[in-house]
Amino acid sequence: MMRRRALGKGLEALIPVKENEVFQEGYRMIPVDVIKRNPYQPRAKIEDADVKDLVSSIKDKGVIEPIVVKRSNDHFVLAAGERRLKAARIAGLKEIPAIIRDLSEQELLEIGLIENLQRKDLNPIEEAQAYDQLNKNFGLTHDRIALLVGKDRSTVTNALRLLALPKRVVEYLRSNKMNAGHARALLALDDEIKILQVAERIVRDNLSVRQAEALVRKIRQKPRIVPAKEKEPNIVMLEDELSKLLSTKVSIEWKRNYGSIMIHCHSVDDFNRIYDILKKIRQPKT
Length: 286
Prior knowledge:
This protein is of the alpha/beta class. It has three domains: 11-149, Alpha-Beta Complex (Conserved hypothetical protein from pyrococcus furiosus pfu- 392566-001, ParB domain), CATH 3.90.1530; 166-220, Arc Repressor Mutant, subunit A (Orthogonal Bundle); 226-269, no CATH class. The protein is 50% helix and 13% strand. It has helices at 17-25, 52-61, 82-90, 105-119, 124-136, 142-149, 153-161, 167-174, 180-186, 192-205, 209-220, 233-246, 268-282, and strands at residues 28-31, 35-36, 67-72, 75-80, 95-101, 250-255, 258-263. The strands form two sheets. The protein has a five-stranded mixed sheet. Helix 5 (124-136) packs across helix 7 (153-161) and helix 9 (180-186) runs parallel beside helix 11. The longest helix has 15 residues, at 105-119. InterPro entries: Chromosome_partition/occlusion, HTH_ParB/Spo0J, ParB/RepB/Spo0J, ParB/Sulfiredoxin_sf, ParB_dimer_C, ParB_N.
C-alpha cells in the first residue's frame, strides 16, 4: 500500500517519521564517486561559484546535514543535497554522510523540485519544466502539483505557459536576462514576431516589468478610427457638377471660410485633358 504523504509543506513532508528519526540519530558514509546526479533534477547546472561559501564551511566543519540518496544496483542516485555533494567534491572529501531511501522516480523529481524551490534556486524555465514532467510523465494535475509545492494553481498554470514562448525568449529566461514577470507580459501578445521584438527590447534596454507591460499594452491597442463627418449637401452637389464637367472625380474639403479642391487624374494625358478644359473655361467670350 502506497504511503500517504502530506503535500505543500516542504521537503520534510516527503520524509516519513521513521526516516526523520534517522536524520537525527544516524547516517551512512558513502563514497562520493559512487553517487550519480538525480536524472530529474530541475536545475540544469550548479556553478562552482554558487557553492564557494559552502566549500569553505565544509573544509572547516565538514558536511553537517546528510544528503538523501536512492540505492540503484552498484551505485546511488542523489535525491536531495546536490549543492552539498558538489561542495564536498570540490573540498576534496572522499565520503559524505547520507541517508538511503527507497524512492520512486516521481519522488526523485518531487524532492529535487521542492528542495530547489525552497532555496529559490530555479530559473522560471527550470521550474516550468519540472511542473511539466510531473504533469506529463507522472499524470499529476495542476491542482495536485500546486498542493505538492505549496503554491496556487494559477501559479503553476502560468509557469507552464512559459514553455510555449519562442525558443529565444526561453533562453533569455534560462539565462536570467529577463524574469517571469517579463515573460507573463509577453504572453498577452498573440504574434510571435511581436513577442520577439518586445523581448529584444526588454533585454537591450533593461526594461522593468512595468515598462514591459506598458509597452505590450501600447502594442495591443487598436488604432481608433474616427468616422468622417458627412459633407454639406451643397458641397456634395458642387463635387458632382465639377466631376461631370471634368469627367473625373473631384473632391472638395471645406472648413469654415476656406477649403480645397482635389481634381483626380490618372495619367499625364488625363492631366493635359483636364488642363485644356479649365483653360477654355477661363478664356473670355468674344
